[in-house]
Amino acid sequence: MPGIAGIIGAKATQQRIGAMLSKLRHRGPDDQWSVANEGVALGTCMPNLGTEKGLAHAESDGITVLFDGEIYNDRPVGAADVEVALGMYTKHGRTFASRLHGVFACAIADGDEIILARDAVGVRPLYWGTDEAGSTAFASELKALSGLVSDIREMLPATVVSSRTGLQPYLPAYPEVVVPDSLDEARDMLRTLLIRATERRLADGRVGGMLLSGGLDSSIIAAIAHELDPRLPAFTVAMKGAPDLQNAIRMAKHLGVEHTVRLFEPEDIKTLVPKAVYALESFDEDCVSGAIANLIASRLAFEHTNCILSGEGGDELFGGYLMLKDFETEHERKQCMENLIAVAYNTALQRLDRAMMHNYINYRTPFLDSEVIALALQLPIDWKVHDAGNGALIEKWILREAFKDMLPEAIYRREKSRFSRGTGADVAIEALAEEIGSAEEFTAHGGRTPMGYQLQSAKEHYYYKLFKSYFPDPAFEALVGRWDPAKGPVTAPSTAGA
Questions:
Q1: Does the pLDDT at position 113 exceed 60?
Q2: Cβ neighbours of residue 180 closer than 8 Å, sequence gap 6 or more
Q3: Which of 9, 342, 463, 482 has its CA at 20 to 30 Å from residue 61's CA atom?
Q4: Which domains does the chain have, with CATH numbers?
Q5: Collapsed DSSP state (helix, strand, coil) of residue 435
Q6: DSSP string, 334-365
Q7: What is the pTM for the complete model shown?
Q8: Using one digit for the tens of pLDDT, what is the confidence trace for 311-321?
Q9: pLDDT grade, residue 446 (50/70/90)?
Q10: Cα–Cα distance between 232 and 299 in angstroms, integer?
């Protein structure tokens, strides 16, 4: 959850690191630490989550570690996550990141070497860039690098960058999970691993609630969490009459949990769209539209807690996207799923991170547990997108079956709905785009940006104009990812070789 930042080179001053942290303050407004000397400036802004989870920096024998994330490795009693990362680096050097189980972005200053690392899925963000004078800077969000460096890149998942040896990918040390030959046994294993993953994320007692959209994934996490801790409340946001709202209410009643619903109006969209684009650092229409409801959800959650459970990741790992049904072969379906997983770090996960962190909400994602991922990546495609015998394909079939007994019938059987469509935000945004004249501009503009992105709609053209007003540097535009592979390149041009 903390914001981390640093500068190496002539620009490494206390004033500049302070300016960077001011743009990341929403990630950790409770405390701040920074240091600047001998051409290196480092800093963090930290939340108050207790010693083990809130500590964002550690030092030992001339080594300094900055850390954002959560680690589930075994550790000495009372050791903070950042101290686990420091110990792993001290023991294993630059290969330390492959041995960390969890989600993280971290920076290590060891003498005159700086090492940056990001988790295998890319849940926690990290960017870095250089200037012509040889200075290097890094930060949790792009906005902290604005005006400081020009050649900016996003750290890709499962990579380490060293100021001495350059960028190196690493192979994550996923737990050994052997998929049973029997579908029934695999279904039971999935249930066991996802329950265990949720239990790990509740173990420290910091989670104070759960997001409940009314979709399958959030309903499953809510059902598991309720069995583990019946006191946890659920939070739902939607426009009145939105498709997902009744399902969320139905699930909450089924569990008997305290349920807080926040309805928003079309008028709220006008205020929220600019905030969403700035917080998200993207103009992709699928990402921005979904981020609006997530911003409201994080603001609602903040009234009760600063740490929540989320069902993010289920669609990517278990074949939840409806487009998968359009392919004629399992090979094509598998390739599309791999693409969706590959871009999640700067689409679905970027949306979740920025929207939650904008309102100081830490998020935990049981679906992205290393054991669950290890199993999901090995499951046959037809166990995920499954023909149940009548020729109709059912998405996330094995996941549905694994938790069928914990869900109302209507939610067990419901088809995937895009988050922004389910909350009702899409319709209001499309109306807003028409109202402000973006449709005419989009038609006249032709929909193509200078960097080669093909804008898809009037609302995306609106998002793009807002994005450029906040981030005019072409390097920022080049880092915008595309969620739907059918809408353009799978990754933005400059991230593919970063």
A1: yes
A2: 186, 189
A3: 9
A4: 3-169 (3.60.20.10), 183-486 (3.40.50.620)
A5: helix
A6: HHHHHHHHHHGGGTHHHHHHHHHHHTT-EEE-
A7: 0.93
A8: 999 999 999 98
A9: confident
A10: 17
